[in-house]
Amino acid sequence: MSELYRPGVGYYRIGAGLIDLASTHNAQLDLFNQSKSNPRLMRVYDAINQRYGTDTLFLAVQGTEQKWTMRRDLLTPQYTTKWDCVLLIKC
After folding, report:
1. Quick check: pTM over 0.90?
2. CA separation (Å) from 1 to 5, 7, 47?
């Protein structure tokens, strides 16, 4: 771990929440609520969307109207290339 530390560099502690992780091999099934999970189908679904573009296939519950979009009117054209333009969030 010592090779990752560099003196004078600011580091932040972050966390990632892993919610509803479940094994695909060992699942507790419910007699009255059958699982609708289908890993093989989802792999095909993802492969088609990767090949032909995002939202080529989508679930009906997603709808066809986009109700909101990200406001980009104040976004700098250098938001991915200039570190000074990246927001600094302090918690």
Report:
1. no
2. 7, 13, 37
